[in-house]
């Protein structure tokens, strides 16, 4: 088992900037994709113990997400509406030029006092590229491009005479001004990424600051963390780790399980099937067969990133103990989705997070 961090576990939430909520189901979701709702949510999350928010990205209507706000502009709006929250904008290499994005993030970072971050998405939805007239690369090439994209961002953010010569991107004596906010422990905005495949794990070990794992068992997450750490060690780097989860906390475990059953029973089967076909096609293109969603069943796919598999369903105390198990396996952050965001985020801050902190303190006392 991994040695858990002595730092408090961090928490992030999925920004509902896409219509349809966080589950592909016809169950009532008291969640809204509007700007006004999201500002209220961001401020509540900030006060409820969340340090990060992740603005998801969809470019076209798909699989229960009829409407989408663009991630970078929406992230800046949330940054300017909050005081401490760090907002991570999901971006696609191939649809962004890295120099343009680097400039955009530098400005957002300056305006927010150093709270901007990016999640580099290599891409699973072919139509988002082809319908915009952009080429759809095979799996390994998408990750090679993403790795160069991240190297470009970091080079332009930190060098006064940026140089890079790659297969996808080039830099020639370029000096970005103003640069992002820098300080102790932060040379540039944080760079996140996801992915299950060996290509994704290798890229994370070589260039990313954070690696997001889809929902999985503690043992499954630990195996991914081990692979990334092995690559990072070869390159003299350290990577931090986040795990996706969908949280359903109720007074009793039976109540929580009943909510999960209702979500699945009322799933939009046509949308889930379409989503499953798209993501499995993307994942099957991996050389190792370990792409995202490859072993996901119907119930898993009702929550976009396998969030049910993390098992955060039950009473606040049960969920807190489950969360600590992920920390013991090497997780530094949990990325959470909810059914009714305002109610559930507030409930998390009041009833789940205090137990997590008590358990963390108790574990620290046992450390020799």
Please describe what this structure looks like.
The protein is α/β, with parallel strands linked by helices and 368 residues long. It has a single domain, classed as TIM Barrel (Alpha-Beta Barrel). The chain is 44% helix and 15% strand. Strands 1-2-3-4-7-8-9-12 form an eight-stranded parallel β-barrel, surrounded by six helices. The chain has a two-stranded antiparallel ribbon with strand order 5-6. The model has no long low-confidence stretch (mean pLDDT 92).
Secondary structure layout:
Layout: E1 10-15, H1 35-47, E2 52-55, H2 71-80, E3 86-91, H3 98-112, E4 116-120, H4 126-130, H5 139-158, E5 162-165, E6 170-174, E7 190-193, H6 198-207, E8 210-213, H7 218-234, E9 240-246, E10 248-249, H8 253-265, H9 269-284, H10 298-301, E11 313-314, H11 316-328, E12 333-337, H12 341-366
Parallel strand pairs: 1-2, 1-12, 2-3, 3-4, 4-7, 7-8, 8-9, 9-12, 10-11
Antiparallel strand pairs: 5-6
Helix pairs in contact: 1-12, 2-3, 3-5, 5-6, 6-7, 11-12
Q: Work out the radius of gyration.
A: 20 Å
Give helix % range: 40-55%
> At the fourth CATH level, what is the homologous superfamily?
Luciferase-like domain
Question: What is the architecture at the second tier of CATH?
Answer: Alpha-Beta Barrel
Shape: globular
Strand content: 5-15%
GO molecular function: monooxygenase activity
Enzyme class: oxidoreductase
Domain Luciferase-like: 11-332
Protein name: Dimethylsulfone monooxygenase SfnG
């Amino acid at each position: 088992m991994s040695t858990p961090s002595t730092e408090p576990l961090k928490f992030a939430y999925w920004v509902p900037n896409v219509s349809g909520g966080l589950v592909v189901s016809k169950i009532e979701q008291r969640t809204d994709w509007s700007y006004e709702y999201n500002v209220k949510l961001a401020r509540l999350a900030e006060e409820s113990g969340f340090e990060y928010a992740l603005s998801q990205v969809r470019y076209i209507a798909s699989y229960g997400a009829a409407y989408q706000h663009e991630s970078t502009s929406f992230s800046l709006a949330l940054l300017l509406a909050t005081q401490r929250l760090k907002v991570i904008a999901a971006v696609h290499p191939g649809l962004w030029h890295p120099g343009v994005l680097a400039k955009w993030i530098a400005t957002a970072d300056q305006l927010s006092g150093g709270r901007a971050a990016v999640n580099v998405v290599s891409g699973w939805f072919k139509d988002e590229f082809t319908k915009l007239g952009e080429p759809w690369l095979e799996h390994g090439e998408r990750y090679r491009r993403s790795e160069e994209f991240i190297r470009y961002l970091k080079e332009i953010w930190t060098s006064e005479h940026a140089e890079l010569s790659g297969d996808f991107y080039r830099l020639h004596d370029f000096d970005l001004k103003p640069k992002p906010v820098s300080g102790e422990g932060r040379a540039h905005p944080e760079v996140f990424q996801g992915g299950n495949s060996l290509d994704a794990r290798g890229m994370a070990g070589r260039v990313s600051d954070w690696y997001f794992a889809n929902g999985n068992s503690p043992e499954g997450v630990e195996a991914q963390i081990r692979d990334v750490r092995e690559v990072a060690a070869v390159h003299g780097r350290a990577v931090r780790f986040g795990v996706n989860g969908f949280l359903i906390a109720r007074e009793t475990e039976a109540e929580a399980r009943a909510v999960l059953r209702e979500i699945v029973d009322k799933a939009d089967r046509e949308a889930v099937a379409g989503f499953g076909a798209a993501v499995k096609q993307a994942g099957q293109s991996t050389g190792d067969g370990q792409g995202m969603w490859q072993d996901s069943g119907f119930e898993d796919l009702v929550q976009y990133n396998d969030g049910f598999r993390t098992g955060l369903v039950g009473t606040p105390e049960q969920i807190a103990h489950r969360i600590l198990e992920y920390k013991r396996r090497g997780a530094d952050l949990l990325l959470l989705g909810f059914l009714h965001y305002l109610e559930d985020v507030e409930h998390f801050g009041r009833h789940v997070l205090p137990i997590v902190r008590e358990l963390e303190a108790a574990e620290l006392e046992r450390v020799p």
